[in-house]
């Protein structure tokens, strides 16, 4: 069975066409800088790389290019969309209704629309991806795999907010957590690398990209994570504020005259490293401005990002009573040598014996601590697509 996995992020789209008999990808692809100047699709298949540089104003444009690339007569891997027997979609927010993956029908689509207000940067492109595939492959089953599912093991003390309890009971206002598929995958891989049972380990995962989160995984279960009711909480991100005093919202509305929708737009789309640097939401652009052009605001934006990640690693080590491994994954986590070094600097008190030479890797698995380090640190490329494909296969 061939399963197409669509993984739409806030400004990127990853996809894989996977032969589930072998669990090998027939084609893998990445669409970057959606809605940003310099949009590009890169597909790898049959040992060759196929690149399409074309403006993509939104995720619908990106999906069209993905499907065209898969059936391209010179660079594609299938002759028609009929060779795709199911499509698995990463869906960011399932609310409390979905704690596991589900076959997508009209009722599910309505629920996803309802949840869009909780993940305004992600559920809309997820929905676009589903609708684009349904339009081109109306008879192909679709499965939604939710980022929130892995974090359903969090205890009440971690997922409840100190608001009137009725707001949780009546309106389901609580921490949900995201990037769950990624956090689950890299936790399992870290345990494999250490040759230990995941149920015996305390792991802090750092999923760092345009969207970013840290998760505390104890004995194989998520016990806390940095994202909350929506993907806005937690780390400084590409365009999102992360943690801040919530009174800023009321101040912007009452004192500066912003509407609620304008504030929502600022917090989700105009803040983060983009808002602080004034350069871009793409960390590579900000790193270039900070390190090569010596722009102060870009330096501050990166410093804030590193500072927040360090805060979460330290706090999660505390709540778990220690840490056995720290994992870096996703775009920044897998590829930025400098950011990983900055984040781990000063963690020798935890037992991290960092190795600068081992850290000089991009986009591939590596242990980046010295032999004998009490706490291991790893770079582990995430593979949310394979996890999504497995859930899709099980359901269809």
From TrEMBL:
Cofactor binding, note field: Mg(2+). Can also accept Mn(2+).
Cellular localization per UniProt: Cytoplasm
Site (Transition state stabilizer) residue list: 179, 240
Binding site for substrate: 90
Keyword Metal-binding (UniProt): yes
Signal peptide (from-to): none
Domain of life: Bacteria
Pathway: Metabolic intermediate biosynthesis; acetyl-CoA biosynthesis; acetyl-CoA from acetate: step 1/2
The entry's keywords: ATP-binding, Cytoplasm, Kinase, Magnesium, Metal-binding, Nucleotide-binding, Transferase
The EC number(s) this enzyme carries: 2.7.2.1
Family: Belongs to the acetokinase family.
Subunit and partners: Homodimer.
Its job: Catalyzes the formation of acetyl phosphate from acetate and ATP. Can also catalyze the reverse reaction.
Name assigned to this protein: Acetate kinase
